[in-house]
Design a protein that fits this description.
Elements lengths: L8 E4 L2 E4 L8 H5 L3 H16 L9 H12 L7 H17 L3 H20 L9 H25 L6 H14 L4 H13 L3 H14 L5 H13 L3 H13 L5 H16 L4 H5 L4
Antiparallel strand pairs: 1-2
């Protein structure tokens, strides 16, 4: 699959330059190529796979290696490469402790994502279903990068653009619980509590208990609308659920803090946790 995206690395007098052609190479065909050619294609294939998986890349080393490889192909006008570069920048920003570096990475992610969804998809993938999926990734990464920039720089209100693109991503894939959740978070922060709660509940219907963070935000929304008993149930559910990311770990800790503040007995949430 990935060898239809890139099949050739070319050396020039100015140094190593990478370019791509949409050609298919079988393992047998690849084995006949020069060693440097095989190395470049296999490295890119690995990077595309790494940044195409669901879920956060929890190894900074693996992420950096994939990013460094893809950067060599950053001038290649292919949506598969560009949206993964956007994702790599977003994920690298999470590991960064420097606000300036984090901000620069997120701005870079926005540009890669914009380039990705601006490409003529019909020329880069076969089949409308596949094109929609790839386009959704690009839109999704654009919205996430903007959302994270909003957290850093609150002076510029990017909310309308963020909502627009999360909604577009949700239209393309209505069964993506994470998109519903993130759209809900945006509405929660704008105090659109009814819309936020509806989205958190929709996310749970799509995939029950998929995220500690979704249950925690559901609790926040319920508490802010005066539904304390329901909020406590959501906080307990969030605390008892096994975290699957750094964001989930943080949300679980925040859920426990809420339960302590609401004077909920530890027996109600410590027993039977994951």
């Amino acid at each position: 699959m990935f060898r239809t995206i890139v099949g050739r690395a070319v050396a020039s007098a100015a140094g190593l330059q990478f370019c791509a052609t949409a050609i298919c190479l079988s393992d047998k065909e690849l084995s006949k190529k020069p060693k440097w050619y095989q190395k470049d294609v296999l490295e890119l294939e690995t990077s595309l796979k790494t940044l195409g998986r669901r879920g956060f890349t929890d190894s900074p080393t693996v992420l950096s290696e994939a990013f460094d490889t893809l950067k060599k192909f950053s001038d290649f006008s292919n949506v598969e490469v560009q949206w993964r570069l956007a994702r790599a920048c977003v994920e690298k920003s999470v590991f960064s402790k420097c606000v300036k570096e984090k901000t620069n990475l997120l701005h870079e992610a926005v540009e890669y994502a914009k380039k990705a969804f601006a490409l003529d998809l019909d020329n880069h993938c076969a089949g409308a279903h596949k094109c929609k999926g790839v386009f959704k990734h690009a839109i999704f990464m654009y919205a996430i990068a903007l959302s994270m920039l909003q957290d850093i720089d609150k002076k510029a209100d990017r909310t309308a653009d963020i909502i627009k693109h999360f909604e577009l991503a949700s239209e393309i894939d209505s069964n993506d619980a994470y998109t519903c959740h993130l759209l809900g978070v945006v509405h929660y922060r704008k105090k659109n509590y009814e819309e936020a709660l509806s989205l958190f509940e929709k996310a749970e219907k799509i995939k029950e208990k998929f995220s500690v963070r979704n249950l925690y935000y559901m609790g926040l929304t319920l508490q802010d609308t005066g539904k304390t008993k329901e909020a406590i149930r959501s906080y307990i559910a969030a605390y008892k659920l096994r975290p699957s990311s750094e964001y989930d770990i943080m949300a679980r800790s925040q859920a426990k803090a809420k339960l302590l503040k609401l004077n909920v007995s530890k027996e109600e949430y410590e027993e039977g946790k994951y």
